[in-house]
Amino acid sequence: MIAARLNGPADFAGWRREARRLALAGIQPEAVDWLTSEDDAGLFAMENATPVAGGSTALTVSRRFIELAENVVCHRDAGRFVLLHRLLLRLQDEPRLLENAADADIARAEAMARSVRRDLHKMTAFVRFRAVSGASEDGPFIAWFEPEHFILERAAAFFTARFGTMIWSILTPQGSLHWDGVALQYGPAASKADAPDGDAIEAYWLTYYASIFNPARLKPKAMKSEMPVKYWRNLPEAELIVPLIASAARRAEDMVMRAPTQPPARHVRQLRHRPELPADESAITSWRDAAAAAQRCTRCDLHCHATQTVFGEGPLDARVLFVGEQPGDKEDLAGRPFVGPAGQVFDRAMKEAGLDRARAYVTNAVKHFKFQLRGKRRIHEKPNVGEIKACRFWLDLELQFVKPRFVVALGASALRSLTGHASSLASARDRELALEDGTPLLATVHPSFLLRLPDEDARSREYARFVADLARVQQRIFRH
Amino acid sequence: MAQLTVLEKLQILSDAAKYDASCASSNTMKRDSRDGKGLGSTTGAGICHSYAPDGRCISLLKILLTNFCSFDCVFCINRSSSNVRRARFSVEEVVALTLNFYRRNYIEGLFLSSGIIRSADYTMAELIRVAETLRRQHGFLGYIHLKLIPGASRDLIERAGLFADRVSINVELPSEAALARFAPEKQASEIKSAMGGLKLKIEAAREERGKSEKAPAFSPAGQSTQMIIGADGASDSAVLKRSAWLYGSFGLKRVYYSAFSPIPDASRQLPLQPPPLMREHRLYQADWLTRFYGFETEEILGRNEMLDLDIDPKLAWALRERGRFPVDVNRADRETLLRVPGLGTRSVDRILTTRRFRRLRLEDVGRLTRSLTTIRHFILAEGWRPGSGLDAQNLRARLMPRPRQLTLFP
């Protein structure tokens, strides 16, 4: 047998050095005794091997193997070094061996790495610090913990990152970590008696643990699979588990069986002070009433899936009122009209035409977003005639309260809503129209039409035409 | 009335908070105190520091600031008509508890909610004060989840997102009609509008931070919501469709389902029965299938309104669609393998890499997965075909878990 000496039970650098030496010497894994501490050395007083001629000359392994090995060396299984040694040799001939998860060696190494990672994770979860008597807020704190594998050094980074500004020690049967707020020191193995046996805050923690438990949902198996019993002895809250389980059935039954009680006086007083609901549709006397009532509109089914009613906005003395089709995805989420991509095109065109968006009233023919849900995307759908008709109620109120001198229909749906009948946008665009009360009506495209044009040339041509339409509006306003 | 001690308040206000199922402390930005400033860290993955006998993880200190409430939501232990004991923490008391728990490694951070007192804005501002004190005065770097108060002003909601890792507002029930019936003071429109505004803020902040790391974070772990299952008459189909809509509309990280649980001093309007825990579990499984396995809600349910309680939804789907099986593990693509009952995303990925080296036999598949019990009936492997078992009428019965006591009241 050949002896390979390591500096500790999870000495990865040492293993790497020795494994390299052994492999280059052509020594087979089964012929090696791995010694992890000085005590072992006495038992196996053997000479190290000298390099053997004819061994492989170069060793290459992937980053992935190093990561796997770093975890596996922490495992408590005494066969870990031999397994890794064997994998190292096999990898020289089978460079893609690691991807073969059905290989017995790989499966075993991966299972060991998983177990180590889990133990590491559980250590970050289950270490419980206790303040040393007379400690300040920042410590010193001491925790006693018993890891399953040799993970102490690997766990250190988590605790220094999290508790970097505290002073603490973590004591284990394998060794100890000491952090003074600046530097980390490793110390010898410790015993439970070296840690404080209590902490005043634990009473609060236990109270919390008992109170957050819902006795009507007893699932001890689920608890144990995530918080294995082997960790319980160092968890202060674990002493509550048995009594909580024992009383759960009775407590749950109590809740079900107990008769309802009379409401307290405070509740009765509160009932008298309920704020009034906003005006309903029949009692609308102002734009504000209309905007509030529209939030609860159920005149068509679109309210079921839209986020909210997107009512028009702008000064109530605006000279011109723009009507779009319906809110889009962004407008639906924001609750405001023309704030999405089409709104940005609209804003730019308005500016180029010499119009100020802030002085116009902007709204839509339909006030709820209509869409098809495809996976996680909402695809815009055109409103139908029924929906346009149902929503005309709100548009009428907006027209009534704003009393614009001009109305502009952006797109066919707006035109449909304002005229009450289907007509071609192309022909309406060149004509002078009017609402029933005589208010002049101009029609142009909806800005989203410009976004949908695939061809760059067509887009800039149509955009220029859109700006020209808006410029006509601007001229009309100034002429009046 | 004698003043309550902090310990008594903690008892009342954690008991009052336990019906909120959400506990996640994951997916936020990474922070640590290595540079000698502040207290705490976030790792991205989140840590469950303990588990209660109800099987739920304890990751955050989940408490209410107060359980006094002016709302009378029928399903809630804290509704104004209930005679539950009431308490109110001061902002400083919550801050001190959070820090003391955190320093002892009990928790990842704070999950703070509240009954509604005085007004939605007043209550929201108090919650924000806790988070702001933790962050600004104490340099707290741990996780903070703030519950948003329905009806709170947009300014306050947007302020909450500056200090919290995650914010959430509960839709409470699968339908707006049920919300109106059971939570008369809550406005569905306010809840939806808040979620819509949050989505825009979260996306805008993420975009800004993509350009510059110095841009302020806004609820970096996103938003979530909770639905109570079993208090109203909604079917699983209605619940899952509502979820799909919530995910699609508001980009939610999670929709939590909370089986309606009996509460002390329950309202007589509610079903007096134990919580439908298995139903809750099946809904989560169905939710997972739509989020990670490429299933559509309609496929999962088939023509049914309710999920099968005895077997998981993927197995139920596969038994309805037997014609699609057996699937050849040596040939099938990822999407097809994900639909095999018993195969999870991890196992599928392992099968895909390993089969590049060898033709997989049944025992190889056994090494790559947790258990072959179910899988074997639905796959072809080298030297393995399921035989006539797949067509057998009793396959469902054979794959059903053995009867066991699922709840306290069988």
Q: Report the sheet-strand fraction of chain A.
A: 5-15%
The helicity of chain B comes to 25-40%
Beta percentage of chain B is 5-15%
The named CATH superfamily of the largest domain in chain A: Uracil-DNA glycosylase-like domain
Output the CATH topology of the largest domain in chain A: Uracil-DNA Glycosylase, subunit E
Family (chain A): Belongs to the uracil-DNA glycosylase (UDG) superfamily. Type 4 (UDGa) family.
Domain Uracil-DNA glycosylase-like (chain A): 311-471
Protein name (chain A): Type-4 uracil-DNA glycosylase
Pfam families (chain A): DUF4130, UDG
Provide a concise account of the structure shown.
The complex is a heterodimer of chains A (480) and B (410). By secondary structure, chain A is an alpha/beta fold.
Question: How would you sum up this structure, described in words?
Answer:
The complex is a heterodimer of chains A (480) and B (410). Chain A has 480 residues and is of the alpha/beta class. Chain A has four domains: 120 residues, no CATH class; 68 residues, no CATH class; 52 residues, no CATH class; 199 residues, Uracil-DNA glycosylase-like domain (Uracil-DNA Glycosylase, subunit E, 3-Layer(aba) Sandwich), CATH 3.40.470. Chain A has 18 helices and 14 strands. In chain A, strands 3-4-5-6-7 form a five-stranded mixed sheet, with helices on one face. In chain A, helix 3 packs across helix 5 and helix 14 packs across helix 15. The radius of gyration of chain A is 38 Å and the shape is elongated. The termini of chain A are far apart. About 2% of the residues of chain A have low confidence. With 410 residues, chain B is of the alpha/beta class. Chain B folds into two domains: 220 residues, TIM Barrel (Alpha-Beta Barrel); 87 residues, no CATH class. Chain B has a six-stranded parallel sheet. A two-stranded antiparallel sheet of chain B has the order 1-2. A two-stranded parallel ribbon of chain B has the order 9-10. In chain B, strand 1 and strand 2 form a beta hairpin. Chain B is globular. The C terminus of chain B is likely disordered. Chain A: This is Type-4 uracil-DNA glycosylase. Chain A: Belongs to the uracil-DNA glycosylase (UDG) superfamily. Type 4 (UDGa) family. Chain A: InterPro entries: DNA_repair_put, DUF4130, UDG_Type-4/5, Ura-DNA_glyco_family4, Uracil-DNA_glycosylase-like, Uracil-DNA_glycosylase-like_sf.
